[in-house]
Amino acid sequence: MELINQHTKKIMEGCKERARAAGLRFENESLEYVVTNRDLLELSPKIMIPTLYDYWVHDVEVLKGKGKYELYPSNPYETVINTRPAISYYNDNNPDWLNVMIFYHVIGHIDFFQNNLYFRHTWDYDFTGEALSDKRVIAKLRSEHGHWVDYVIEFARGIDNLVGYFPELHRLFPVTTAQLPARLDYYFDVFLQSVRKVKTSEYIKEIERYNQCLAEYAHLCDDMFFAEVDRRHPEFKALFVKYKEHKSAPPVDLIQYILENSPFLNKEENKWMKIIIEVIRKTSLFFQPQIRTKIMNEGWASYWHETLFLQDDRIEGHEVDFARVNAGVTAMPRVGLNPYALGMRMFYAIEENANKGRITWDFQRLKDARQREKYDGTLGRGREYIFHVRENHSDFTFINQFINQDFVTQHDLFVAGRRLNEAKMVWEYYVKSRNSDDYRQMLLDGLYHPPRIGIDHEKGKRDNALYLIHHFEHKPLIKDFIANTLMGVEYLWGGPVELETHEPLPKLTRSDRPKSAAAKGDEPPIQWQRVVYTMKERKLSRRIAA
Amino acid sequence: MKNELWEIYLRLKAEGLDPALEKKILSEIDTNPSAGATALESLTPPALTGFYDWADLQVLQPLAMAQSHTSQVRTIDDLLAKDRQREKDGFPRKVRVGRMIKPGRGGKDKVVVVPTSTEEKLMHDSSFQDQEEESAGGGSGEGEEGEVIGEEPVRQSEKGSGAGPGQGEGDQHELESSAYDLGRILTEQFELPNLKDKGKKRSLTRYTYDLTDRHRGFGQVLDKKATLRKIVETNIHLGNLPDVNDIDTLGFLISPKDMVYRILSREKDFESQAMVFFVRDYSGSMVGKTTELIVAQHVLIYSWLLYQYANQVQTRFVLHDTTAKEVPDFYTYYNSKVAGGTQVSSAYKLVNEIVEKENLAQDYNIYVFHGTDGDDWDAEGRESIPQLKLMMRYANRVGITIAQHSAGSSTEVEKYIKKSGLLEQAPELIRMDVLTDDADESRLIEGIRKLISQDKR
User: Do B308 and B426 fall into the same domain?
Assistant: First the structure.
C-alpha cells in the first residue's frame, strides 16, 4: 500500500476545490492509497480498516449466503473509510478521467460521513488510530491468555449486532422537549394515563384545570396545581421519585449489561476480557450508521460524481468513457435493487420537487393528477433542501418520506415477483405491483434490521440467569444460529441464559405435496407461538412458553 | 414404472416380507418422481442483488476481487488444530472443510474446497415464509402488472453465489485454483489402494529422468561394458586381434570415441491404469440430505482422481433404483432425480456385466464406490451378496458408503453386508463406511480415507 503520486494527488485537490465551491463541506486532509489485489485480500476481511485487530476467522472464508449483510454492518469493499483523515483506496492504473470521477464519488462519501447526523458519534476521533491501539492491546492479551482471547472475541462478536446504536445517538442528541418541568410531564403523560388510567373526559378536565390555573396565577401556577394534585393523590410524590430514579438510568444494550452485571466477567482474573468486549462493541457501533445509510450515501456520492464530473473542465474528450462507466454504476436494473441508481434518482427528484415548491403542504393537498404535474411554486431552493436531507435522514426516513407515486411512476418502478413455473421448471419474474405503497414497503422490508433483544431483569433472577426477550416483529430468528450464540452469551455471563422468542407453528400440510394453484390463495395465516430457549452448561433446550 | 415396482413388490411379498420393510417399500413406490426432483434441488431460488450487494471498489474501479481466501490461510492443518482445540475446550467445532460447486458439462467439473466458517448471531430469518411465490425485490422498466418479464431456469449449472457486478472475470481462475487446492489437500492424504501392475500404458503427462541414453566421447557415467565392447570392435577392425582365443589386451589401441557414457534422458513413464465405477442409489428414499452427502463424497473422490491420476484413471457412472443404468458423464450422474424403489443387486450386476463384457479386469485396476442410504428391498441380500462376491474377484477395492437417515438402527445393506462376513474375510477388498445424515465435509473426507485406506483394521 502506498500513497498515490503527486500528479494524481493534484487532481484530487482540484476535485476538492470544485466540490467545495458546489457546497460540499469536509475536512481538508484526506489520504489516498494505491492498493493491489494482495492488499485487498488482507483488507477486505478487516472491513478495509488496515489496523483492525487480528482474529482467525478473518483468515477463513466466512460463509456468505443470504443475509450476509445482517451479520456485518459494513460492506468489506468500500472505497473510502470514515476515518480522520478519510482514507480511500485506488487501483494503480486508473486513467486520470476515471480518477476524477472516483474522486468526486469519494468526496461525496466523505461529505456524507462528516455531515450526516447519524455519524455524529464518529466525528470526534480517528477510528484507525484507536483500532491500532486496540489491536496492540489484544495482541498483548493474546500473549498472556493464548487462545482464550479468540473465544472472547468470538462470543462478543456473536452479539455485536445487538449494540444499542440508537441509545448511543439518543445520548448525543438529548430530546429537547424536556423544557417543561418533569413533574408536569410525568403527571399528564404517565401518571394520569398509565397509573390512574383516567377516562378521556377526566384527562381533558385536568388539562383545562391546568390551563386555567396558568392563566390565573402565571408562574405560581405550578405549585398551586400540584398542591391540589398531592391532596387528591397522596401516592403521587412517591411514585414520581421512583419514576425519576428509574428514568435516570440510561438504556443499556446487551453487551453493556453483561459488562456491568456479569458475575463471571467481574471476577478479578477475568477482567481482561472486558477490554476486548469493549473493543468489539466500539467497532460495531462505529459501523452501524454506514449500513443504515447505504442508499443515501451511495445516492449522494453518485449524484455528486455525476454533477461535478460533467462540469469539470479538465476531462474534456472523455465524456463518452464517463457515460459508459457511469451508466454501469447508476443504471436501474430490470430486476434487483441498486442503491447508487435509486439513491441518485431520489436526490434528483427531491431537488426538483423542492425547486418547484412541491415539498409543501399546498402541493401535498392537491389531488388532481394534472394539476400536480403542472404545479410549479418556483421556490428554487432544491440544492439547499437536499443538503438538509443528507444531514438529517437515514435510509428508513429517506425512503419512508420521499418514495411517492410520482417518483415510482416517473421511473417506471415496480415490485417484482417471482414464482415457480413447474411445467417449464423456470423461475418466472413478473410485475407484481406498481403501487408506490407496495414499492416503499418492499424497500423498507429489505433494509438492515437486526432483532431487538431486551433484558428482563426480574425473570432470570431466581437462578442467576440472564433472561432475554426478543421483541416480536413477525419474524423468527434463524434457529441454527441460536445455540452457538447463546453458548457465547452463557460463557460471558457465567450462568444460564434464556431467550424468549416467537416461532411460526409448522404448517399442517405436507411440504412435499405438490401444491396446486388453487390452494395457494387460501393459505392460512401463520400461527405464532412463544418459545423459550435455555442455554445451560452448554446445552440448549427449548420449551413452549405458557 | 409404477407397475414394474408394484410387480417387484408383489413378488417380494409372496416370498415373505418384514412388515417394517414392507412399509418402506410402499412409501418408496408412492414417492412422486417430481417431488423427488424438487427435494434434490431443494429449490432455492437464485439470490438477487439487493442494496447491500453493491460496493464501491467493485462498481467504480476495475479492481478484480480475488474472493478466494485460500492464499491467506496459513495451512489447513493450523485451522483444524485450532478446531480440535475448540473441542478440547468444550466448544463445538467451527471450521468446515469444503464447499461444493456443482460440476458442469464440458469438462468444467470444478470443486471449491476452502475452509469456511459461519459467525453465528441472533438474526432474523427471512426465509421462513413460503418460497414458492414471493416478491423478489425491485424492478424498473415496462410491463403491466402481472406480466411475466423474464424467466430463469431452476437448475442453474454454476455459481449460486457471487452476485454483484465486477466479479465475472475472476471466477474461472478462482475455480481452477481451488480445484488445485482441493487436489493438494486430498492427495497429501490419499492414494488408491492395492494398485497392481495391469495393462501398463504409456503416460502422456509423467516423465522420469534416468541415465539411459548412450553417448560416445563424453558424458556423466562411463558405461564400462559398452566401452569394452566398442574397444574390441575397433581393434578387430585394426587387425590387433588375430586370434580370439589368445587376446593380448596390451596391444589394443583405444580411441577417444570408444568411450561410451551414459547421459541423462527424459523417459516417458509407464503407469498402471485404473477404472473407477461410481455407483449411486437414486431411489425414492434417497430424497434430500442423504443424496447430497453421497454426491458430495463422490464429488470429492472424483475431483481427487481428476487431479492425481489425470489420464490414468477412467471413470464410469452407474445409477440404480430397482434397475440400474449407466450414465455418460459426472454431470448427469450428479444431477439425476431420485425416484423409485431400491434394489442394490441390480447395480452390482450391471457393474459385473460391464466388466465382463469389456474385459476390463485384465487391463485395469478396478475400483467401485457405491453410495446408498442403506435401504434395500432385498433385505437379506440374497441377490446382492453373490453379486458382490463376484465383484470382489476382480476389484481392487469396493467402497460402500451408507448415509443413514437417522443414527441408531442399522440399515438393510449394512446388516446383510456385516452378516455376510465379507468385511472380515477380505478387508483388503471391501470397506464400508456408515454416515449419519448430519455429517459434514470433514466427515466425508474422513470417510474417503476409510474407504481407500491400506492399513488393516
Answer: yes
Rounded distance, CA A189 to CA B348, Å? 81
Residues A32-65: tens digit of each pLDDT: 999 887 777 777 778 888 888 888 777 665 544 3
C-alpha cell at B113: 474446497
- Reference B64, options A339, A325, A332, A41; nearest CA is A41
Asked whether residue B335 carries a pLDDT value surpassing 80, the answer given is no
Interface predicted TM-score (ipTM): 0.77
Residues B231 and B332 placed together within one structural domain of the fold:
no
Residue B145 belongs to a domain: no
Amino acid at A291: I
pLDDT at site A505? 83
How far does the CA of residue A347 sit from the closest CA of chain B (Å)? 17
pLDDT of residue A31: 92
pLDDT confidence of B106, banded at 50, 70, 90? very low
pLDDT, tens digit, for every residue of A268-288?
999 999 999 999 999 999 999
Based on the fold, state whether residues B235 and B381 are members of the same structural domain. Answer: no
Domain count, chain B: 3
By Cβ distance, the residue of B51, B59, B133 closest to A446 is B51
Nearest one of B332, B304, B338, B300 to B320, comparing CA atoms? B338
Hey, which residues 118-137 in chain B have their CB within 8 Å of chain A? Answer: 118-130, 132-137
Residues B444 and B297: beta-carbon distance below 8 Å: yes
Residues within 8 A of A (CB atoms), B 276-305 only:
287
Please give the span between the terminal C-alpha atoms of chain B, in angstroms, as a whole number.
43
The residue range of the domain holding B418 is: 272-452
Q: How far is CA A198 from the centre of its chain?
A: 38
Of B154, B188, B222, which one is at a domain's C-terminal end? B188
Confidence of residue A267 (pLDDT cuts 50, 70, 90): very high
Q: Domain check: are B240 and B180 in the same one?
A: no
Residues of chain B contacting residue A434, judged by C-beta atoms under 8 Å apart: 145
> Is B284 in the same domain as B422?
yes
- Residue B198 in domain: no
Instruction: Check if A40 contacts B (Cβ < 8 Å).
Output: yes
* pLDDT of the residue at A117: 94
Q: Which residue has the cell 411379498?
A: B13
Nearest CB to A71: which of B55, B68, B121? B121
Shortest distance between the Cα of B434 and any Cα of chain A, in A, equals 25
